[in-house]
Amino acid sequence: TWSDFELLVVGDCCTDGSQAYVESIADERVRWINLERNVGDQSGPNNRGCEEARGEWIAYLGHDDLWLPGHLEGLASVMQTGADMAYSIAICYHEDEICGALPQFFEDYRRPMAITPATVMHRRSLWEKVGGWRGRYEIRAAMDYELWWRFFESGAVMRFLPEISSVKFPAVLRKDVQRTKPSDVQERFSRRIREEAGFAEEQNK
In angstroms, rounded to a whole number, what is the distance separating the alpha carbons of residues 93 and 148? Predict the structure, then answer.
């Protein structure tokens, strides 16, 4: 429902067919970027995406997560109130069953709060201010939670959107998912989101 965006698809030194697929999309808002070396975690692709972004607001979509149609519009409405970071709720599915939701607390930010990147929008200038994403060998904490904590410590205004706007499929519950890279669950839910009237509203009941 929010069309004023650019989509940066950042490969972590991908050698599969990702580049050809992305470049086949006839939409000037979509750009393919591939890292020259494999980083092995989200810090590298996320930092490169933030560096390349032309806009001031950054949102994340992991390769195995999905946004609901109103995701960007909802978070943008919060950013327009003066927030430096906005975050919503991700509903977690294992196969076709709901297995949880993130963040774990639905009120003011607190540490260590489990906020998945798929629910976040923040100012690019805030990412610059705190020094960006840190890799898994630089820190002991989860890298996304650690970044949000640095946002908080910097004095950022962090506001919550009490809506489910994304769908997450926890890799820890999907056997061998990093090796076999299945996409059947995402394909099934993508169809449901597109074709089932009221799917997004149903998640928020």
Answer: 24
